[in-house]
Design brief:
The complex is a heterodimer of chains A (572) and B (218).
Chain A: E1 5-6, E2 9-10, H1 11-30, H2 47-50, H3 66-69, E3 78-86, E4 95-105, H4 119-146, H5 149-158, E5 162-163, E6 165-172, H6 180-185, E7 187-190, E8 194-196, E9 199-207, E10 218-219, H7 246-252, E11 320-321, H8 337-349, H9 373-376, H10 396-401, H11 410-416, H12 420-425, H13 443-446, H14 454-457, H15 467-489, H16 495-511, H17 523-532, H18 546-571
Helix pairs in contact in A: 1-4, 15-18
Chain B: E1 4-7, E2 11-14, H1 18-33, E3 41-44, E4 51-54, H2 58-77, E5 83-95, E6 105-120, H3 137-171, E7 190-195, H4 201-211
Parallel strand pairs in B: 1-6, 2-6
Antiparallel strand pairs in B: 3-4, 5-6, 5-7
The chains are: A alpha+beta (572), B alpha/beta (218).
GO cellular component, one term (chain A): phagophore assembly site
Region (Disordered) (chain A): 238-311, 333-496, 516-537
Biased composition (Basic and acidic residues) (chain A): 396-408, 422-431
């Protein structure tokens, strides 16, 4: 059947573009984040948008070349299955919730379209075909919004929470027939066909009238798992090092509650189910971190092996895709997470610069437990820290290693990062839906504008006297004050250790940042310090009782006298 | 040219639901008849679990809002009348023989949509002497249940109306005029009129056939 041109458009072109645009409309209305986390910005309609006078925006990459979708020509049907896949249970089968079928059926032999007509009428037919195709496409667009799956789509897109199901799709050129039982569960809607010179362009949809059977519900934001290397708790081993190599992290990652439809065409993972995650730029990667920056994550074990993060290959043959992994709630960690994670390590390794021994000015403000000279000369703990630590097991490294509360836990990550809305806003303009693993998938993190405390951006940020550090050390110091003061009165350490301890104390007190905790008051402690003539940050002593302060004062006096006596002895 | 008429199924609505219902239906019809280049917008109904599509033309949105406001003010003046009708018409402007005291152009309607609404009173199911104080919780619960049932039924009816619109626009295409080249947004002129409840669509059609002229019914 010859295709006749009219203003540059042929029937075959119209049908081909129609199928492409219909697929675009279906996927845009059913697959969350088909363009990526950021919707493409609205712009002046391009030539592609002008087809059928319906501007849908940039199509996903797979649809940029419609010929790829219909390799066998316009006469092959286009079957789009919309599937609801359980996320947490890969053993549960996915279910087709909608099946769209669009095809150009060859005309019957007795149809007037079967025989070639005159050129003038061909032009008229093409125009009429095009006009009707416009209306048909509008109808498809409207029906997509009226079917039950639209509600699921809205839930998955709009919510910043993770649901226990995913919407995925499958495009093929044949429709696997439903069983009788399945057929009975579906309702059928058929659009009026559009006559073309190539046949009748017919579109129909089978859909489930109700999706309540799938129990779509919110899955937990934080999957239940044991974080063995959690460093935020004072009960954690402060000396535990972060895993530094990617292999270590990959070995401890888990798919958690986000098993992706990563089944990319005959490459099942041996260590992960077919629906294992395949995207490395998972926005909610607080659980496992992005695979392309594995060194940044050390907080979350129990992740699947690296194999589950393989980058899937795009294959038109199977036409089975899963959407980008952006449906889950928590966004990706910021790029500087590495620096953030590194800063406590840096402070851990060099929290305080030990001054040169022989420092004349001695500022002894703390309990003189000289077993750990650096630790014991830190300011007293903050009242909000109820944690107590074993002083003997801690040192300055662990103390300064602790991060502020807001950043300590994985919840802190989720608090730090933007919501899915922000995630959506961060979509790359060239949003992609292919799973080729190209760098463009990194946009979920790199392009997302997530608000994070400014201090974390600073690679040089170090907080040796961060509140928590102060808290932890203060808490232990407070708990040990009574005991240590009495012990110190009887201590007779060597000259060097005493000098070093004093020097450290002096330096720390001089360089200590003021505490930000508002519960501290400066009144009583200032008076004590002035008595001693030391003039230090007064807030360190606010929370302590007067008796404790008095005891400490006495201990300092004794230290002073001892030092003076020792120095006199040296001179003589 | 034939004038295709589509009479939509009557919707039973409460006063506060009128705007949302009319928006949904009018925008859906216009979206299927604005055959110029449009950038569609999805609108989620506030009162119903429905999403409809607007053609994204600001002038259309403005005109629809104005007409809905006009409709609401009219029905408020006639609280006893329950049935009301809104008519959305598409027409062509054609030149005619100039004559004394008549315009040179005439409107030839090729499609009309009749949206039928029955306005209910919110307290129609409550007892006359019921007040908030001393309200029986059981009756309040039943009232809430009735409202919920009403809302569900209305949502289903609206959905049915929308499918009716889609079915009609798909089946009836031959009467559509030629789309102007490079049309942006609205391709065919239209008008929204509010029919008085005393005049039905049939009466209006009769008048049209008799006069053969544009009839302004508002």
């Amino acid at each position: 059947m010859a295709a006749h041109s009219d203003s540059g458009r042929t029937t075959e072109q119209i049908v081909s573009q129609f199928l492409s645009k219909a697929l675009h409309a279906i996927l845009a209305a059913r697959i969350p984040y088909i363009h990526g986390p950021t919707p493409p910005p609205s712009r002046h309609p391009r030539k592609r948008d002008r087809w059928f006078h319906l501007a849908l925006g940039d199509p996903p990459p797979a649809l940029e070349h419609p010929s790829g979708l219909i390799p066998n020509g316009v006469m092959e049907p286009l079957v789009v299955d919309i599937l609801l896949s359980p996320r947490d249970d890969p053993t549960m089968p996915e279910a087709i919730v909608e099946r769209w079928v669009a095809q150009c059926e060859a005309p019957a032999p007795w149809s007037p379209l079967h025989s070639p007509a005159e050129t003038s009428s061909n032009s008229f037919l093409v125009k009429r075909t095009y006009k009707k195709s416009i209306i048909l496409l509008r109808s498809i667009y409207s029906v997509l919004r009226l079917l039950p799956a639209q509600r699921v789509f809205k839930m998955l897109c709009a919510s910043n929470q993770s649901y226990n199901h995913d919407l995925t799709y499958r495009v093929s050129s044949f429709a696997e027939p439903f069983s009788r039982k399945e057929e009975a569960e579906f309702q059928y809607h058929c659009f009026a066909p559009v006559e073309t010179q190539s046949g009748q362009l017919a579109v129909s949809v089978q859909y489930r009238p109700s999706l309540s059977q799938f129990n779509l519900e919110i899955s937990s934001l934080l999957p239940p798992m044991l974080i063995t290397d959690y460093v935020g708790s004072p009960a954690a081993d402060p000396m535990r090092a972060f895993p530094s190599s990617p292999s270590e992290r990959a070995g401890t990652r888990s798919s958690t509650s986000f098993p992706l439809r990563g089944s990319q065409h005959g490459q099942p993972s041996t260590s992960a189910p077919a629906s294992a995650p395949v995207f490395f730029n998972r926005p909610h990667s607080w659980t496992g971190g992005p695979s392309e920056v594995p060194s940044n994550r050390a907080q979350h074990p129990n992740h699947p092996p690296t194999g589950s993060y393989r980058k899937p290959a795009f294959n038109f043959d199977e036409f089975k895709f899963s959407p980008p992994f952006y449906m889950s709630p928590t966004p990706s960690p910021p790029k500087f997470s590495g620096s953030y994670m590194q800063s406590p390590l840096r402070s851990e390794t060099a929290p305080v610069s030990i001054p040169q021994p022989g420092s004349s000015k001695v500022k002894v403000l703390r309990s003189p437990n000289l077993s750990d000279p650096t630790r014991n000369f830190l300011p007293p703990p903050s009242p909000r820290s109820a944690r107590t630590t074993d002083p003997s097991s801690q040192d300055s490294d662990s103390r300064s290693f602790r991060r502020p509360d807001g950043l300590r836990t994985s919840d802190g990550y989720s608090n730090m990062y933007g919501t899915p809305k922000g995630l959506k806003d961060g979509r790359d303009d060239s949003g992609r839906f292919s799973l080729s693993g190209s760098p463009r998938f990194t946009f979920s993190r790199s392009s997302s504008r997530i608000s994070v405390p400014d201090d974390l951006d600073d690679p040089d940020f170090s907080y040796p006297f961060a509140v928590d550090d102060v808290d932890s050390s203060d808490s232990q110091a407070r708990s040990n004050d009574g005991k240590e003061v009495s012990d110190f009165g009887h201590a007779s350490s060597s000259h060097k250790s005493q000098d070093a301890a004093v020097g450290v104390l002096v330096h720390m007190l001089r360089t200590a940042a003021p505490l930000r905790d508002s519960t501290y008051s400066s009144q009583s402690s200032k008076s004590e310090l002035q008595e001693e003539g030391l003039g230090s940050t007064s807030s360190f002593f606010m929370s302590r009782k007067a008796s404790d302060a008095l005891e400490e004062l006495q201990s300092y006096k004794s230290i002073k006298e001892m030092l003076l006596s020792q120095s006199k002895g040296k001179l003589h | 040219m034939n004038c295709e008429v589509c009479e939509l199924k009557e919707l039973v609505v409460e006063q506060f639901e009128i705007r949302e219902v009319l928006r949904c239906i009018l925008h859906t019809i216009i979206f299927h008849r604005a055959l110029g280049l449009v950038r569609p917008r999805d609108i989620n109904c506030e009162l119903f679990e429905l999403t409809y599509v607007q053609c994204g033309v600001p002038e259309v949105e403005k005109e629809i809002e104005e007409k809905i406001t006009e409709f609401i003010s009219k029905i408020s003046k006639h609280p006893n009348r329950r049935s009301h009708q809104v008519c959305l018409s598409f027409y062509e402007t054609k030149d005619k023989q100039p004559a004394w005291f008549s315009s040179k152009t005439e409107r030839v309607y090729w499609e009309r949509w009749f949206i039928n609404l029955q306005i209910t009173n919110q307290r129609v199911n409550m007892k006359p002497n019921q007040t908030k104080v001393g309200f029986d919780p059981g009756e309040k619960l039943s009232s809430l249940e009735e409202k919920k049932l009403h809302r569900t039924a209305l949502e289903a009816s609206i959905r049915e109306n929308l499918f009716q619109i889609i079915k009609f626009v798909n089946e009836k295409m031959d009467h559509l005029p030629h789309i102007p080249p490079n049309a942006e947004g609205i391709s065919y002129p239209y008008e929204i009129t509010i029919l008085s409840s005393s005049e039905s669509s049939l009466d209006m059609l009769k008048r049209m056939l008799q006069t053969g002229h544009q009839t302004t019914l508002s």
